[in-house]
Amino acid sequence: MSAMPRDLPDPADRSDRSDHRDAPRRLHPSGGYRNTCSFQTSTLIYDATWWFCEKFLDSHSRTVDQMVQAARSGRQNIAEGSRASATSSQTELRLLNVARASLEELLLDYEDYLRHRHHPQWAPNAPEALAVRQVPQRHRGDPVDPKDRSDLSAITDAQRWTLYAPWLEHADPAVRANAAICLIHQANYLLGQQISALERVFVEGGGYSEQLAVARLAARDRTHHEGETDTLPACPLCGKPMVVRTIKQGKKAGSRFLGCTAYPACKGARELEAPA
Question: By percentage, how much of the chain surpasses pLDDT 70?
Fold first, then answer.
């Protein structure tokens, strides 16, 4: 019988959703981390590590504390970063990097466990490693829910654990450790993708303070123009919406300004004012 993972979310809990119908619209939505593959994979890793340490390591060992805390940090920092994104993109990026670093530390612990006990570590293309990595693909072919999306995000934590239980509940600790290593590599890859995407958004659209400045300009313009409905300031040359851009070269490199969305056809620009 499969063990049930800890920290299962309450189905009625909507605290991770930023699109509450009764809540005011946020300038920068946050939350939703429970639906990300990185958080779901990190939850598997945390649960697997807890039970691995409980079954195969001395409970008084300092290594147990370090492994459990590293696994927990990988998971919790994803959640904290998602919440912090409401007011600070830089904080979200920093916490995602902390999560990835914590999982990297845990990866070394599992590798040390195998090496110190002379257990083989699966090669990346070994049949056992491929079997673990291909769980999402196999699930797509035989979903738990016919309406399931093409990944594992639509199922519960308990159902997700069941898919990996043949490895994570195996009697051989080497199998469990190797499976955990596969999951850590997956989680770190997913976090790397998230970080790269957030960096692009931050560079192209600016952080929270820049978005506040744009919102302030838009609100001020609406007070001077009846019927104004644009959410961004209008270009003074062509009237199209403007976005925050960053100067990449010259003496003012790194400075931000409002540029026309029709660039390079239109080179309209305005200074980016700080929020009042």
Answer: 72
Looking at residue 148, its pLDDT comes to 37
pLDDT at 207 over 90: no
Listing from the earlier edge strand, what are the strands of the sheet with 242-246?
A: 242-246, 256-260, 269-271
Q: Are residues 229 and 112 in the same domain?
A: no
Give tens-digit pLDDT for 26-73. Answer: 545 556 889 899 999 999 999 999 999 999 999 999 999 999 999 999
2 assigned to some structural domain: no
**Alpha carbon 2 to chain centroid, angstroms:** 27
**Three-point CA angle 258, 264, 268, nearest 5°:** 40
- Whether 14 maps to a domain, the answer reads no
DSSP alpha helix (H) spans, the chain: 37-56, 62-84, 89-116, 127-133, 135-141, 157-168, 173-205, 208-224
Verify that 162 and 263 share a domain, yes or no.
no
